[in-house]
Amino acid sequence: AQRVTQPEKLLSVFKGAPVELKCNYSYSGSPELFWYVQYSRQRLQLLLRHISRESIKGFTADLNKGETSFHLKKPFAQEEDSAMYYCALSGQEGGSQGNLIFGKGTKLSVKP
Amino acid sequence: GAVVSQHPSWVICKSGTSVKIECRSLDFQATTMFWYRQFPKQSLMLMATSNEGSKATYEQGVEKDKFLINHASLTLSTLTVTSAHPEDSSFYICSAVSGGAYNEQFFGPGTRLTVL
Questions:
Q1: Residue A92: what pLDDT?
Q2: What span, in angstroms and rounded, lies between the C-alpha atoms of A63 and B97?
Q3: Cα separation of A75 and A81, whole Å?
């Protein structure tokens, strides 16, 4: 069964500290993984996708098929990074976002 | 960037009434829209996939007669919660696929439904 697991409901770090939001997935085929972010009182928006191998706002995520993980990392957290982060999986090929399966989300709180 | 709107942003209704929620892609055409439901402090759960000009595809466990979806144009999909009950109270979010290189999903701001 397709499943996305984000083990941490809340992650609290101090400004300037490294941050890693964990995401593990279960999928029998070749998945497409995404990270979405929802800032306070704003809509959900795409942060990055594994297929494009990009760094957005200092965040990166590497797909590890052996560990079935797609952890989101940033070396130096900023207060404006405080938000809800969702890991999502799509079973469609080519980076397209068909049906998305979301993890339960991790709330990142960056303290001054 | 692509913008998706939802109307209304919140609605309170009496039990037994029907409520219609609109999802519009403002600056692009969306052949596919998705409807999600989000309970407090929980993740988004896909309810159905709405394709323009055809019947919606519902996820397992979602009552299609309860949650009517109409995607009559390339910029508008509607979700009607029929005979709403308190357990239908939730945050309903739609998204629209832009059809670009990655078919990125753009999300609406959500609609808070409270059924008394």
A1: 60
A2: 23
A3: 12
Question: Which residues of chain B have a CB within 8 Å of the CB of A94?
Answer: 102
Instruction: Name the pLDDT band for B39 (thresholds 50, 70, 90).
Output: confident
CB contact under 8 A, B105 and A97: yes
pLDDT of residue A71: 97
Q: Reply yes or no on whether the pLDDT at A93 is more than 70.
A: no
A51-A69-B99 Cα angle (round to 5): 30
**Predicted confidence (pLDDT) per residue in A18-74, tens digit:** 999 999 999 877 788 999 999 988 899 999 988 777 888 999 998 998 999 999 999
Contacts of A43 in chain B (CB under 8 A): 4, 93, 107-110
Length of chain A: 112
The verdict on a CB contact (< 8 Å) between A43 and B109 is: yes
B82 and B63 Cβ atoms separated by less than 8 Å: no
How would you class B72 by CB atoms within 10 Å of its CB: exposed for 0-12, middle for 13-18, buried for 19 or more? Answer: exposed
Pairwise CB contact (< 8 Å): A44 & B44: yes
The answer to whether residue B31 neighbours chain A at the CB level (below 8 Å) is no
Are B53 and B31 within 8 A, CB to CB?
no
Q: What is chain B's mean pLDDT, rounded?
A: 90
Q: CA B31, A53, A1 angle in degrees (round to 5)?
A: 60
